[in-house]
Amino acid sequence: MTTSPEQYRMIYDMLNQVEVLSYDCGRLCHSVCCQPENDRDMGMYLFPGEEAVHDQKDPWLFWRKVKASDHQFPDGWPEEVWYVNCYGPAYCKRKKRPLQCRFFPVTAHLDEQDRLSLVRFDLELPYYCPLLEESFELNEDWLEAVWEAYHILIQDKAVYDMIKQESNDRIAVNESIHITYQKED
């Protein structure tokens, strides 16, 4: 199953109701992750089909397509993937932020039995993020909404394959995975 534009709109609406903290986390670091970079390396990939809920003519994001084979996407991903960069906090349309932005500082993890959980983002960043480096308690409603969003997204084989690949990589290098959130069965 491919994630439909309607499903993306539903996910966006669900995530518009919650925030990672009780306030905009950009206040902690002057929105360091949203600062435009001259070389446009700092940005995020869209999930397959996510571009359908955006207007590419809207000037707050810089759009470009990149070859999936030049990055570490599984074979099932489209040949080209959308990569977007924000023009900066002054231009941000918070209710339209791409999912990768809304999910930060957690990401999905699938264990050996394919149980979905959320873990803290574990890739090295070129900046200091208080949400990763300090002990902030993340909003429980936000965690549940992110988990629900990923639960929908992993029904898409391409997204499932990416999350499974990242999870297997994480398992291979970590003796124990610290689960930030897992919905009870």
What count of structural domains? 1
The proportion of residues in beta strands is: 15-25%
Order of the strands making up the biggest sheet: 1-3-2
Distance between the termini: 23 Å
Low-confidence stretches: none
The gyration radius over C-alpha positions equals 16 Å
Helix content: 25-40%
Q: What is the residue-mean pLDDT, rounded to a whole number?
A: 86
Structure class: alpha+beta
Order of helices and strands: HHEEEHEEHHHE
- Main beta sheet strand tally, sense and closure: 3 strands, antiparallel
The helix count comes to: 6
Principal-axes geometry comes out as globular
According to DSSP, the number of beta strands is 6
Polypeptide structure, described:
The chain is α+β, with helices and mostly antiparallel strands and 185 residues long. The protein has one domain (5-181). Helix content is 30%, strand content 16%. It contains six helices and six strands. It has helices at 5-15, 26-29, 99-103, 130-133, 140-153, 157-173; strands at residues 44-45, 61-67, 80-86, 106-110, 116-120, 179-181. The strands form two sheets. A three-stranded antiparallel β-sheet has the order 1-3-2, with no helix packed on it. Helix 1 (5-15) packs antiparallel against helix 5 (140-153). The longest helix has 17 residues, at 157-173. The radius of gyration is 16 Å and the shape is globular. The two termini are 23 Å apart. The model has no long low-confidence stretch (mean pLDDT 86).
